[in-house]
Amino acid sequence: MKNFFYFVFLIPAILLLFSFHKMEGSQNFEAENVRATLVYPQHAVLGEGSIWSDTDQVLYWIDIEGKKLFIYNPKTNCNQEFGLSDLPGTVVQRTNGELLIAIRNGITSFNPHTKEFKVMAHPNTVANNRYNDGKCDSQGRFWVSTMSLEQDNPPKASLFKIDRDFHSEKIFDGVRIGNGLVWSIDQKKFYYIDTPTLNIDEMDYNAAQGTVSNRRHCISFENRNFGFPDGMTIDSEGKLWIAHWEGGRVTRWCPITKKLLLTVTVPNVSRVTSCAFGDSDLQSLYITTARRDGEPDSGSLFKYRFTNGIKGNVAFKFQG
């Protein structure tokens, strides 16, 4: 009688529980792969440098090869553009409302209302280098990398820090294509991408002094069919988001477990360059791309809207 009870009641219950768990796992697996949608068909030659302004509620981004600055307003679906004197690498906002653009001929302050440009610093001294990716830290300093326009060996690019008084300091050199950089939520780690290495490096970070130390590999993309790591951002949970050049996607990683958590596919576009959380609740991931023949939507601006609690952080501004 006892064995009969187990067979009739417990076995079906176990099978039902297993079936539910399997179905739940299948749903989670599907949720880990989502598709971005086209929000603005700009067709930039080399779209890059996306950053959301919490004060202006717009997305700043650039076209490096097209020598343009863009200001995208999602409420009006308008993408205002400004011509630049030379190749820009990235853009950040200043606390005074102006922008700081890393243009090849100098770190330049720009007022979108008066259209006034002013070079404030120029730490790069290597003729065949240009500024590339960069962001501001929690203390209001601007960190920006350079990249070589030639295949230099040994590599000649560097990572620089621009202080609030516009004094510049080289953090380290030996860089080929300095790209994505972010700080951990607790401000104790610094993450950095030198694209050809196929690695995200992790360093210890001293926020008060603005220094890094103990550089080591965190996440490797070797032997993965993900293309090359390019731009990077971090969400409110401390997870890293990587844009993949020639990979057609943005991926989410845990820097502690080194595990891939989610993939945002950019449909029919291979050259994905940067990503930034935006909109009033920071629950939309904006994605920039670069032109490639045979890909009609390449160079456009894409977006994926999260409804599961994933969100970004307010971008730090330059306090100089």
From TrEMBL:
<dbReference type="GO" id="GO:0004341">
    <property type="term" value="F:gluconolactonase activity"/>
</dbReference>
<feature type="binding site">
    <location>
        <position position="230"/>
    </location>
    <ligand>
        <name>a divalent metal cation</name>
    </ligand>
</feature>
<feature type="domain" description="SMP-30/Gluconolactonase/LRE-like region">
    <location>
        <begin position="46"/>
        <end position="291"/>
    </location>
</feature>
<dbReference type="GO" id="GO:0019853">
    <property type="term" value="P:L-ascorbic acid biosynthetic process"/>
</dbReference>
<keyword id="KW-0479">Metal-binding</keyword>
<dbReference type="InterPro" id="IPR013658">
    <property type="entry name" value="SGL"/>
</dbReference>
<protein>
    <submittedName>
        <fullName>Senescence marker protein-30 family protein</fullName>
    </submittedName>
</protein>
<feature type="binding site">
    <location>
        <position position="150"/>
    </location>
    <ligand>
        <name>substrate</name>
    </ligand>
</feature>
<feature type="active site" description="Proton donor/acceptor">
    <location>
        <position position="230"/>
    </location>
</feature>
<feature type="binding site">
    <location>
        <position position="132"/>
    </location>
    <ligand>
        <name>substrate</name>
    </ligand>
</feature>
<feature type="binding site">
    <location>
        <position position="179"/>
    </location>
    <ligand>
        <name>a divalent metal cation</name>
    </ligand>
</feature>
<dbReference type="InterPro" id="IPR005511">
    <property type="entry name" value="SMP-30"/>
</dbReference>
<keyword id="KW-0732">Signal</keyword>
<feature type="binding site">
    <location>
        <position position="48"/>
    </location>
    <ligand>
        <name>a divalent metal cation</name>
    </ligand>
</feature>
<dbReference type="Pfam" id="PF08450">
    <property type="entry name" value="SGL"/>
</dbReference>
<feature type="binding site">
    <location>
        <position position="130"/>
    </location>
    <ligand>
        <name>substrate</name>
    </ligand>
</feature>
<dbReference type="GO" id="GO:0005509">
    <property type="term" value="F:calcium ion binding"/>
</dbReference>
<comment type="similarity">
    <text>Belongs to the SMP-30/CGR1 family.</text>
</comment>
<feature type="signal peptide">
    <location>
        <begin position="1"/>
        <end position="25"/>
    </location>
</feature>
<keyword id="KW-0862">Zinc</keyword>
<dbReference type="InterPro" id="IPR011042">
    <property type="entry name" value="6-blade_b-propeller_TolB-like"/>
</dbReference>
